[in-house]
């Protein structure tokens, strides 16, 4: 059974009560040990891979060197033939034959290292995927257990502090009421602010021609004219 | 990252948070460390944070099964499934007989990420209750 299914079955089956583990602690420990073992194998496989790749590179260098030497000696053999020195040409040809046999051996070794490296790379990738997958599954088990333990801590805290758990609607109403109160306060502050400005009642009255009016040139002139008439 | 670094960060923010919210943190002791986070003005809907080996879980409790109109259970479940992707950063879940919204962050998240998560989760929780109250008794 997959871990997902196990957790689902356990939660649905009511194993969610505190103290009852989804998967017994021992099994979790074994699982953790398995992950650690797999990680150790992975480290070893990576080390092996480095070694094999180094040998592969060395073999490749040897193959290149032999190829170069063969070409070189083929040149020498040609030159010997041109000079009519059949014996020397034969000696060079023997050397070339020996080099070619070396080359074929080195090529074989190189191919074998390359094949090994390829296999090890595949193995490393597969192990990495497996370790990641095991870790994911372990995380699911541990998270489920952690949430259960956290829930019981929260529940205990609520019952010990005697705080009554509100229904969702009541909570929302209270939050909205607080928000409203806050908004009202803000609005009141705005009104207070505006009383010192042009939008105040006094300004509105003045605009309507009620109350004390500012003295204008006309009213001053009217006053002086009235005095002269006296 | 553990609940204490989160608590220290949020408490030290005071009025300087970029999210315009004030947090109050209260650790709850138990088998697993839990941090109860209250947001000023929304004390009724606290967020509970716990830290596991690879993630930070932020959970806000919505309502109990007993608060749902019996005939509304199935449509409510469907709405929750449908809203899980549009709802930013949070998802619905059920712990025991309580419905919750929660967000899970990687353990390597920054404190600013955690702060952002909490703000969004709180907004989501308030909005969800408002918009789904038709399903409730």
From TrEMBL, chain A:
What is the name of this protein? PspA/IM30 family protein
Name the segments for region: Disordered: 206-230
Keywords from the named record: Coiled coil
Family annotation (Pfam families): PspA_IM30
The UniProt similarity line reads: Belongs to the PspA/Vipp/IM30 family.
Is Coiled coil one of the keywords? yes
Q: Which residues form a coiled coil?
A: 28-69, 117-144
Automatic annotation (TrEMBL), chain B:
Entry-linked Pfam families: DUF2170
Top-level lineage group: Bacteria
Q: What is this protein called?
A: DUF2170 family protein
Record lineage: Bacteria, Pseudomonadati, Pseudomonadota, Gammaproteobacteria, Alteromonadales
């Amino acid at each position: 059974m997959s871990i997902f299914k196990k957790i689902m079955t356990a939660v649905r089956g009511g194993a969610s009560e505190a103290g009852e583990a989804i998967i017994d602690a021992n099994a979790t420990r074994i699982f953790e040990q398995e992950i650690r073992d797999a990680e150790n194998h992975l480290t070893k496989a990576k080390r092996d891979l480095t070694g094999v790749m180094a040998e592969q590179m060395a073999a490749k260098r040897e193959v290149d060197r032999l190829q170069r030497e063969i070409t070189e000696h083929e040149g020498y053999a040609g030159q010997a033939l041109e000079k009519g020195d059949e014996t020397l040409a034969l000696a060079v040809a023997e050397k070339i034959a020996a080099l070619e046999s070396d080359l074929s051996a080195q090529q074989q070794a190189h191919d074998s290292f390359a094949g090994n490296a390829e296999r090890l790379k595949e193995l490393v990738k597969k192990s990495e995927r497996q370790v990641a997958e095991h870790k994911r599954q372990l995380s699911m088990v541990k998270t489920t257990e952690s949430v259960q333990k956290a829930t019981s801590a929260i529940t205990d805290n609520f019952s010990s502090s005697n705080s009554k758990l509100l229904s969702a609607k009541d909570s929302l109403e209270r939050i909205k009421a607080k928000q409203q109160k806050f908004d009202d306060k803000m609005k009141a502050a705005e009104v207070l602010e505006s009383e010192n400005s042009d939008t105040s009642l006094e300004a509105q009255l003045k605009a309507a021609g009620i109350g004390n009016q500012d003295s204008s040139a006309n009213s001053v002139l009217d006053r002086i004219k009235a005095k002269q008439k006296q | 990252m553990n609940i204490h670094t989160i608590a220290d960060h949020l408490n030290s923010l005071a009025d300087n948070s970029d999210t315009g919210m004030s947090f109050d943190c209260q650790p709850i002791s138990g088998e697993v460390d839990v941090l109860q986070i209250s947001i000023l003005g929304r004390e009724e809907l606290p967020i509970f944070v716990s830290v596991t080996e690879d993630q930070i879980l932020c959970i806000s409790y919505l309502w109990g099964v007993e608060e749902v109109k019996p005939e509304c259970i199935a449509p409510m479940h469907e709405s929750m499934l449908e809203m899980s992707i549009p709802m930013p950063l949070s998802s619905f879940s059920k712990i025991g007989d309580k419905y919750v919204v929660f967000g899970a962050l990687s353990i390597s998240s920054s404190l600013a990420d955690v702060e952002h998560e909490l703000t969004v989760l709180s907004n989501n929780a308030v909005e969800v209750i408002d918009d789904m109250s038709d399903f409730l008794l």
